[in-house]
Design goal:
By secondary structure, this protein is mainly alpha-helical. About 75% of the residues lie in helices and about 5% in strands.
Length: about 280
């Protein structure tokens, strides 16, 4: 009889411990807002949340790549815009130089400004950011993964933006065009200046086309970035639906379990006050 009573008491202790643990879990769920903390809480939901978590991790990596690509695209657009402005300024200077009334001092000032423009444009094409990443890729565009199976070239190559310009059937670079312009200024021949002006215009038109191409790259990044954001919000909502706390239900369960525990503890206390003779009498 004593052995049976001891077993009953142990069973009651384990039941109360289980109730206490369930109450603590419920209180934790209320305070954190998360019900699903371990696989045993809901095995099927746990598997689904694990799959969503992996998808969220991949989404975050792609979003980081989008941000990286966007930063590079912004730098490329800014540099191309500045090159475009400098080439427009060069056209104005060459047109002014064709004015026969210019004296040598004025012509020398124009030559000096175009020399500075040539240097500045070279720096813009070869510029690197604070991490040492070039604004324009060298030789081949770096492909950035931005979605499953989709890798984008976020900027053009330095060769694409600065070389291969058709000037009367001859491929030239921006640097060569500006060099030709400087030579024409030095010799002062109007025919040479006219030819140089045409070459500068061709170079500027080339930059305009490259700006449009860069704009397309930037737009694709924006579209994919928006799509990733939408997918990320959907994943967050699905995950919240699986693991978030239903406050009404959990609070009701905790309240009921507290009443059960209080009643069990009161009964257990009364039993422990009884003597062995009371129990077997």
């Amino acid at each position: 009889m004593v052995g049976i009573t001891h077993k009953i008491m142990l069973a009651e202790i384990r039941r109360q411990q289980s109730l206490s643990k369930s109450i603590v879990d419920g209180q934790t769920a209320v305070s954190t807002g998360v019900t699903l903390n371990k696989a045993s809480d809901d095995p099927l939901a746990w598997v689904q949340v694990s799959d969503i978590a992996r998808a969220q991790s991949q989404q975050a990596a792609w979003q980081t790549n989008i941000s990286y690509g966007t930063a590079r695209a912004v730098n490329a657009e800014a540099n191309l815009s500045e090159v475009d402005s400098l080439l427009q300024r060069t056209q104005v200077l060459v047109t002014s130089a064709r004015n026969g009334s210019l004296n040598e001092t004025s012509r020398a000032a124009i030559l000096e400004e175009i020399t500075t423009i040539r240097t500045t444009i070279g720096e813009l094409f070869n510029q690197k950011d604070y991490q040492g990443t070039p604004v324009f890729d060298d030789g081949q565009s770096v492909l950035v993964p931005v979605s499953r199976g989709l890798n984008l070239a976020v900027v053009g190559t330095r060769q694409d933006v600065s070389e291969g310009i058709d000037v009367d059937g001859t491929p030239m670079s921006i640097d060569a065009i500006l060099g030709q312009t400087m030579a024409a200024l030095e010799n002062g021949d109007d025919a040479d200046l006219a030819s140089a002006l045409g070459a500068v215009k061709a170079g500027q038109n080339h930059i305009v086309v490259e700006q449009a191409r860069q704009g397309v790259r930037s737009d694709r990044l924006d579209v994919i970035g928006t799509r990733l954001t939408d997918i990320g919000l959907d994943l967050t909502e699905r995950r919240a639906g699986l693991e978030s706390t239903d406050l009404t239900e959990v609070i009701a369960n905790v309240s009921a379990q507290l009443l059960q525990l209080e009643a069990a503890q009161a009964s257990f206390a009364r039993i422990n006050r009884q003597t062995l003779f009371d129990l077997i009498g």
